[in-house]
Protein 1
Amino acid sequence: MADIIAETDRLVLRTIEEGDAALQYRLLNTPSVMARLGGVKELHEIEAKHARGMALYAREGFSFLFMIEKASGEMVGHCGIKRVDNPLAPNQGDHEIGWLVREDRWRRGYAEEAMRPVLDWAFTRVGAPHVVALTSEANVGSWKLMQKLGMVRRKDLDFEDPAFPPQDNPTIQYSLTKDQWESAQ
């Protein structure tokens, strides 16, 4: 049974369950949505990612969540917290936040609406001293949301990742400390 982590005016943020990979594969795994995230994934890759996320939630009390639209009951995206796990990143193990929204729900403010309670979750219940978010310069929508959330660009954390095409290198990071977040509330 999924845990509900937060609710907003339009969304329920719930943990991922067994069997959710097929739903994500069908609704989120499109060329447009995955364009800046390494491209479309195979179902077994999503299943493995979900298994890691469920294990992280069981072990540390945080993970990625599904964004469920209250009005329709449909999954419209995912968001949450994980550990920086890219072996090329200089800050492996930091709390990393992230999100994506399915294409037919773009430009409705769902990512920001979901990420505000995710930040609250990170800094209160999870106890993260700071969070980071990773993207590329080309992913303008992503880093603009990071700025809107109060995050600060951290050029000292940039790194090259040959798994991504040249237009998505380097990987750039933004950071937000608990103190910065609290002072903005």
Protein 2
Amino acid sequence: MKTKHVEITYTEAFEELNRLVLEMERGEIAVDVLSEKVARAGLLIKICKAKLTETEASVSALLKELE
């Protein structure tokens, strides 16, 4: 069974990551789901990093064209 890939924007990923961090800092996450939340945070960090790298490459390419 294939899982449908849902595209998430940088802003959505960043905001969700911020919410998870706040929950963790406040101790609002039950120990039973902590590893799940940490895994989700790791995925969100990867998404944000990939989107930033992609944007940086696009901007660099555009600037190079303008030279």
